[in-house]
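Recall the central idea of this unit: under ordinary conditions, the amino acid sequence of a chain determines the structure it adopts. In this exercise we apply that idea directly, starting from the sequence alone.
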Amino acid sequence: MEKKKLANLNSIRKVIQRTQLILIISITILLSIGGAFINLNFNKRTLNQNLQNTAELITRLYSFVQDYPQEELCKYMDSVVQDLSDVDVISIIDLDNIRKYHTHHDLINSEYFGTIPDFASHGNNYYTENNIGPSGPQIRTYSAVYDSYGNYNGFIMTIRLRTSISAVTARILILFFIVTLVAILIEIVISGVLSRRIKKEFLAFTEDFEGTKFLVDSMRANNHDFTNKLHVILGLVQIGQYDKAISYIQNISIIQRETISKVMNSIENPSFAALIVGKIARASECNVKFIINEGTCFRNADITLPSEALVTITGNLIDNALDSMNMDTSKTEKELSLGIYTRPDELLIIVKDTGSGIPDELKYKIFENGFSTKGEGRGIGLYHTKQLITSLGGSITFESQVGIGTCFMVNL
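Accordingly, the structure predicted from this sequence is:
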């Protein structure tokens, strides 16, 4: 009788284990396939817009150096290409169809025989299309170049090669495959561990109290964390702290929901808003209180700037503030406040921290290339940030007091 009972229990255990494993693996595979599909479609939709935004930024930068001697122009544009991970080739064509600059230097000063962009028919100084060039199939954005007097002076091609796009797609698929495989392996291991534990519990069931002890212990183990939370809620209710009980239950989800909602309602640019939400999460990990200033508002209609420029400028300033506060271990309360304000043709960004501050003798050095108090290999963030702001016709200033904190202000 006992052997028959044990056999039945083991049979039930195996059925439960197989069913659970099949369900978990199936859901994991479906989620991974869905995630890969959504990610690939999103990348495809945003590729053209991102390439055009980058082309606008490159054209702005080139407008400041188009009269440089060719050797200096070549060095400058090479540095631009190196800093832009989503661009493979930049080609600058003058009015005589001669390449003033090309990422592949052997094509510089050679004649361009490709498509001549028709900006008039597109009604814009920027447009994107599929084409084939010396480097193979590609997506290219044409952008018109004008001299300081407003005269048409040629065009720039900002190019993303199809081979590069395919490589990114392959990496995404490989990443999803690896994540799926690892998740399945972990699930199999966990299932095996749980199966062995359940088997021991079933054996104890046949030896002690006709299964009562197993059921109680199993429920206790599976609900341990949940029980702890119930104890807190029960205690608050018993002492009459009903509001605190409700707050305890809802606090984390409400805070997160309100934070994301506030950012999305205040910032119209999706890439810019996504950056801020990500930095809020990072600040939380660093034990820094992140404050969005009242009145923060970014409207796309007020000012036209490439998303990449907004992300680079604001991201560097926030990272710099977080690094400053992480280095200051004397303060227990750390705060970072961000204010973003637009009105027609003007943008103001304010990033304020409660870090260690900048000594007077170092204030004139902080925008120098390579200068940093954080060790070797640092000191390029603020330098590039100022260079980008200057190229966009803006300015950056700051105020700092040792032991109090620092406030950076960007006007564009």
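DSSP finds ten helices and ten strands in the chain.
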